[in-house]
Amino acid sequence: MAELKRSDIDYTILFYNPNIHPVKEYEIRKDENKRFADKLGVEFVDLDYNKDAWFHKVEGYEMEPERGYRCTLCFDMRFERSALYAAENGFKVFSSTLGTSRWKNLEQINGCGERAAERYDGITYWTFNWRKKGGANRMVEISKDEKFYQQEYCGCAYSLRDTNQSRVERGMEPIKLGVKFYGDDGASS
Description:
By secondary structure, this protein is mainly alpha-helical. It has helices spanning 2-6, 23-40, 51-57, 69-88, 106-118, 135-146, 157-169; strands at residues 12-15, 43-46, 93-94, 124-125. The protein has one domain. It has a two-stranded parallel ribbon with strand order 1-2.
């Protein structure tokens, strides 16, 4: 968001994440995005939290690993809705911050975005690599400066399940929603 603003690119933040579970986590993540958008003076659009449609979309793929086909289905759903919003509202280009995370497969994300854009005339998915030139590190710096909520799992119910299982197997406590913030405890990842 900050880099786009600094580049004088006029943009809107579209928040469409029916995958985030539970609703408490969804609200925290949405509020953090809205807070930063407001700080930068960027329009923020919140679309429907249609978790039932998301669960239906990924039905049968509950045991897929992170970065597996379930994630492709999830990205497809979210990018298809983003591309539709772009087409309906006169945007020619859309992109995503998903690829900033080193935990995500950039080719998988870009493929989903490009497929969604192809469905609408005149719409392009911008495949900019935000990781280059320290982009992922910059994201952490901004997160610390802003004391953003620190997301400890992808967001979906299955990622939460798998992350908690892994943590317990390693002798760690399960994730506690809404308690970990960048900069409060020296967290850096």
